[in-house]
Write a structure and sequence with these properties.
The protein has 258 residues and is an alpha/beta fold. The chain has ten helices and eight strands. It is globular. The structure holds nickel (II) ion.
Length: 258
């Protein structure tokens, strides 16, 4: 039983083979996943998926790269749908300094506003951080995000930073890059993260793990991430699957019958 905590199966990359893709996930033991919407079209595509599949959960939030495009209507779309059955997190939100389409000040404001919204709704966050670790941490701390916590998605920093995010009540999630040859930093961090704070994800259709690097990713391949992390921790795949699934359900506050 594997839990892929971060997918974009609402992406048009899956339009041609959606049912087959879900079957392959099931065959690989992926019994639960989160589908993430990051802008108006992808947020609107989350709902039919989670309405039709009991074990697919949803997360909605406005992505930092397009922060400058977020209208009041977009904010309200997110706000009014946070109580939709099956929505388990607000995200992915955060900071992305790799792209300069949205000025930092605008990214900060959109990020803070959505953290406050999640706190009001009592939902955990899914955090996207690219080349903005210090500001991401500072804003989470200033906004007291520890009261809701959440996921540091596709984590790629060192263990010192991971500890700081864990202290703010966040889980550390690893994806396909942990299998890449040049990703020793991620492997070192994964080795250090306490077992009860570890999550796995694909971020599909992006970041396919080896040996599929560069190809379209899909939830079935979270198994390859689980195998790598299990190897780093000296555990079996079954043990790692059980631990990361329990962690995901605790993080997203999913209870036995929900
Ligand atoms: Ni994502």
């Amino acid at each position: 039983m594997l839990f892929d905590t971060h997918t974009h199966i609402n992406d048009e990359a899956f339009d041609a083979d959606f049912p087959d893709m879900l079957n392959r996930a099931e065959e690989a033991g992926v019994t639960q996943m989160v589908v993430v919407g990051v802008d108006r079209p992808t947020i609107e595509r989350v709902f039919p998926i989670i309405d039709q599949h009991k074990y697919i959960y949803g997360a909605i939030g406005w992505n930092p790269e397009d922060a400058i495009d977020m209208t009041e209507d977009d904010f309200q779309l997110i706000q009014r749908n946070l109580t939709h059955p099956g929505i388990v997190a607000l995200g992915e939100i955060g900071l992305d300094y790799h792209w300069d389409k949205s000025p930092k000040s605008v990214q900060h404001e959109v990020f803070r506003r959505q953290i406050r919204l999640a706190k009001k709704a009592g939902l955990p966050l899914i955090i996207h951080n690219r080349e903005a670790t210090e500001d991401t941490w500072r804003i989470l701390k200033e906004e007291h995000a520890e009261s809701i916590g959440g996921v540091m998605h596709c984590y790629s920093d060192d263990w010192d930073w991971a500890q700081k995010f864990i202290d703010l009540n966040f889980y550390i999630s690893f994806g396909g890059p942990v299998t890449f040859k040049n990703a020793q930093l991620q492997r070192d961090t994964a080795t250090m993260v306490p077992l009860d704070r570890l999550l796995i994800e694909t971020d599909c259709p992006f970041l396919s793990p080896q040996p599929f690097r560069g190809k379209r990713n899909e939830p079935a391949r979270v198994r390859l991430v689980a195998e790598k992390v299990a190897e780093l921790k000296g555990l079996s795949l079954e043990e790692m699957a059980k631990i990361t699934t329990e962690n995901a359900r605790r993080c997203f506050r999913i209870h036995e019958n929900g």
